[in-house]
Amino acid sequence: MINRSAAFAVLNALLLLAGAIDARERRLPNVLAILLAAASAIAALASGGVDALALNALAAFAICGMLLVLELFWRTRRGVAGQGIGDIKALFSLVLAAPVRGVISYALALIGLAITGIAVHRPALPLLPFLAVAFICLGLLPSFG
């Protein structure tokens, strides 16, 4: 049996690494995205077995599929990127691990990004550092941990 706490600890460590890379380079390397997805799948298995993994995967595909369609529509209409594909890949992993926590983390990250962007007068900032902090902090709360 996989220890749930250990699975989420590995996921959180990978998420912090991804956030640091995104802050510095504005990208999520594919190898790290795959590791995040694998760690998330293990965390889902540890949380509720194969049934939880299947349900979480369905939620992740649905949510991130809609975001991907919206992003591609945005890019064709506006000619510029709105949200990075790496951010969508990271969100997929978080929803795969814990759907409600992942979606709430995404919303909090967008709010934090908007407030920070206004405060520092920058039109674009990396989302993944905000997403990592939100997901990890929510995990510290009893109802999400």
Automatic annotation (TrEMBL):
One of its GO terms (molecular function) is aspartic-type endopeptidase activity. It comes from the Bacteria. GO terms for cellular component: membrane. The chain crosses the membrane at residues 30-46, 53-74, 94-120, 127-144. Signal peptide: none annotated. Residues 10-117 form the Prepilin type IV endopeptidase peptidase domain. Keywords: Membrane, Transmembrane, Transmembrane helix. The keyword Membrane applies. InterPro entries: Prepilin_IV_endopep_pep. This is Prepilin type IV endopeptidase peptidase domain-containing protein. It comes from Enorma massiliensis. The lineage of its organism: Bacteria, Bacillati, Actinomycetota, Coriobacteriia, Coriobacteriales.
